Amino acid sequence: MNPTDIIIPHDLLPQDGRFGSGPSKIRPAQIDALSAAGRTLLGTSHRQDPVKNVVGSIREGLSEFFHIPDGYEAVLGNGGASAFWDVICANVITRTAAVGVYGSFSQKMATSIVSAPFLNDPVIYESAPGTYRIPDFTPEADTYCWAHNETSTGVAAPVRRVPGSREAGALTVVDATSAAAALPVDISETDIYYFSPQKAFGSEGGLWIAILSPAAVERAFHIGETLECAHGERWIPPFLSLTSAITNSRKNQTLNTPSLSTLLLLDNQVRYLNEQGGLAWSSKHCADNAQLLYTWAEASSFANPFVEDPAARSNSVVTVDLVEDLHDSDVLAALRTNGIVDVSGYRKLGRNQLRVGVFPNVQTRDVAQLTHCIDYVARQLLMNS
Q1: Aminotransferase class V domain: which residues (predicted)?
Q2: Contact at 8 Å (CB) between 209 and 203?
């Protein structure tokens, strides 16, 4: 049968059919806040107090949300987390990094390091998709990098310093793009915890946020002062300068013109999350959403969790494999026809799989309804196969 001919009963449908792993669902209240504030702020200078006040509010709100230790600071910059991989190469790694690789996005971090001509090739600690691998202590490493959550596979890795790394003067750098605000974290176990706001923070892309330790700030300024192009050691493009981002953030602005709509959506979301109870509330909400899906998949006759180890399963992005006779493309087509969108698996992983974002803005009732909808679609497709 044609999957687009399947009509899911209305009482099974979620109230909101957005389950993307990023960009993710934005609350209507955020849109309303954007509309209200945008009437006066959109189209104005980001160097003036009205917009600087928004940036200041974001930085203060994130400090509260993550309970950042004394001396740490929230820094904002242009370009998103993809740009921040190059920021790390230019400003953070002195010579050698040890990198955990267990999916597409952690691989991209390693690839950026390999492409930097002024750095040594990274020491790679790799594991298969569906698992994670944190680096071991590596004597030559001055920086340790891995992802808190591998968006492509739905794997969550621990955030803890590699034993002996701090004593050796190495920094711990964690990609948190699909983890921040969804998974619990102790920021003191990192020197840089960085992310984009288009996932759990329900905003748009094009911005990066990094929570920096004093050691990370010191490293950035040391590299900028001693290893820049004037000494022939490395080139730090102005757009990728972490010291410029730090200096501007301390003035509650970004180096280049930001998207004001992104800032306004992010500010409203940070306020909302703090009002609900902060990281403790949001991480529990996401865990409840995820557990509902994992329990459903484990009991299903046609689906099962892709990540075998329950301890490694993500509570922000849930991946579910389908049986061979049930094609993900057919399920996705039927769901989209009925208003349920963005639950496709990561394209480069190439599995017969669904992937569901269960971020703070996704209601638990809607996750439950999603499972009912998938069950209904699967029955129709399998009966007529």
Answers
A1: 139-344
A2: no
